[in-house]
User: What shape does this take?
Amino acid sequence: MDVRLQPWSESALDLLRQLNTPQMRHHLGGPEPEEKLLVRHRRYLAMPETGSGCMFAILHGDEMVGSIAYQRRDWQGEQIYEAGWSVLPPYQGRGVAARAGLALIAIVGEIVARDPGAPRGLHAFPSVDNGPSNALCRRLGFTLLGACDFEYPAGSGILMRSNNWRLGLPT
Ligand SMILES: CC(C)(COP(=O)(O)OP(=O)(O)OC[C@H]1O[C@@H](n2cnc3c(N)ncnc32)[C@H](O)[C@@H]1OP(=O)(O)O)[C@@H](O)C(=O)NCCC(=O)NCCS
Assistant: This one.
């Protein structure tokens, strides 16, 4: 299956709207109103300039079928990269996220190879009851460190019982 990552663009706003459903955001606090979605869209567009990470559209052929990101953040006093992913329902269960995840790991691996000061761990924090996302972490080679309380969305004060998965990045 042909899966590629494309840095977030103006045309990805429609994808963001398609991802903003009760089903897709079941483990992510539910759908957001349009104004919050637009703020999120602008933040994704600006991510590369800020050096904090990058949001990508997942392409299958020419079609946008999901999103995947890495983002630098502080976690319990340590700088880490955090990964997040979503695939539209018609494309789920076909290995899209697994392929996109490998592509993301390669991109973050290249950044780390160039920058000795970059974080050495890529983490994911799926809700403990998010079966597909936890299976994806395992499949991508992440190690389960244990459960934790994770604030999502960042800055919201809302805590989600999550698994802390970590993938070590080569030094
Ligand atoms: C998590 C998600 C991105 C996985 O995408 P996907 O393209 O369907 O995943 P893949 O087909 O690459 O499969 C990855 C793993 O998940 C497993 N999986 C996929 N769908 C599953 C399901 N409904 N139930 C249990 N496991 C499932 C696959 O079997 C595979 O594991 P395996 O290699 O051990 O067999 C997708 O389910 C999704 O977008 N969920 C909604 C948004 C979300 O919750 N994102 C995560 C936030 S942390």
About this structure: Residues 24, 27-28, 84-87, 92-98, 126, 130-133, 135-136, 139 surround coenzyme A (CB under 6 Å). The chain is about 30% helix and 35% strand.
